[in-house]
Amino acid sequence: MQEDQNEAQTESMPGTEELLRQAELLIEEHKDAWMRAKAETENVRKRAQADIANAHKYAVENFSSELLAVKDSLEKAISVENASLEAMKDGVELTLKQLNAVFTKFNLEEIDPAGQKFDPHQHQAISAIDSKEAPNTVLQVLQKGYKLNDRIIRPALVIVSKSA
Question: Which of 5, 31, 44, 101 has its CA 20 to 30 A from that of 85?
Fold first, then answer.
């Protein structure tokens, strides 16, 4: 009876060759899944790189398209013959209004610090002159500065006061 049990166990247990074949099939399945995952990861990486490249390439597209209206207005102003000084001034004011609207839309803020305390993070002092004002007060703005979303893209060029 014990012999019958041993024979039954041997028949129900797969042979070494069968185990090896099953292991090789499993290896192939895992290798195939790994290769597919690797390829998918590479495709995602390439798509992400392309998206980043396009974002850099076309980052100012909306801003640029908004500026086209301002350029059109300036070209129309130049093309008008025999325009009066008053009409030209009105046209320039309207064009400046258009430009300011574009700046506002894209969070481009003007830095005009006249009368404020000098801030080296936003202002660039060109000179300092004696004044009755408190030291380091901005007396004159030679060129306005600009910041984009709280990042200074051009500091204001200023003249500041110094103590006499």
Answer: 101
